[in-house]
Amino acid sequence: MRFITLVTLLLFGSVAKASDPQQLLQQAADNIIELLEQNKQQLAVDETLAPAIVRENLLPLVDTLGLGKRLLTRKVWPTLSGSQQQRFTDAFVDHLINTYANGLANYDGHKFHFIKTNYSSSGKTAWVYSELISKQQERFSIIYTLKLMDHYPDWRVVDVSIEGIKILQNYREQLKSVDVSEGFDALLAKIETKTESTP
């Protein structure tokens, strides 16, 4: 499951703008699979390569500006200063990178099949339905949620559902019990402990 989550997250980056969200993800999938194939052996032995690949390919299409606001409650997020909000976002991004980089070494001929795209009535939210197919023909359902927002020039991924589990929503539920009154350093520490169990 860790590998599946990692690769779906990697699909958020590495491509130029595209007006069709399904096309955007398909292009990313092709690039990521090629990258994994080219570095398969090196990924298993070079501990610095996987985090570098994740950082380079994860961030460009993720709604990083709204990440902290989505993860913390509406009551908590406004109580943080601008610098604290940035530190929280940076810490969570680092946590994601470090958590999922290990899964790169598990790549073994996986393929992506994109099925269809549904849009909201406003046309500003899209759900891209896909499958990850393993070398053994195991199929895993993946649904990407993308949004068009004023502060971005194109679609940004805001969540991913893997076999019915929404990844960012899962993190958000774990962080609901964080008590900011304990101090901001304690909040950052809890990011690491409360997200350890996420698939």
UniProtKB/TrEMBL annotation:
Q: Translocase: present as a keyword of the record?
A: no
InterPro entries this protein is in?
A: MlaC/ttg2D, Tgt2/MlaC_sf
One Pfam family, short name: MlaC
Keywords assigned: Signal
Q: Which residues form the signal peptide?
A: 1-18
Output the superkingdom of the source species.
Bacteria
Indicate whether Ligase appears among the record's keywords.
no
Recorded protein name is Phospholipid transport system substrate-binding protein
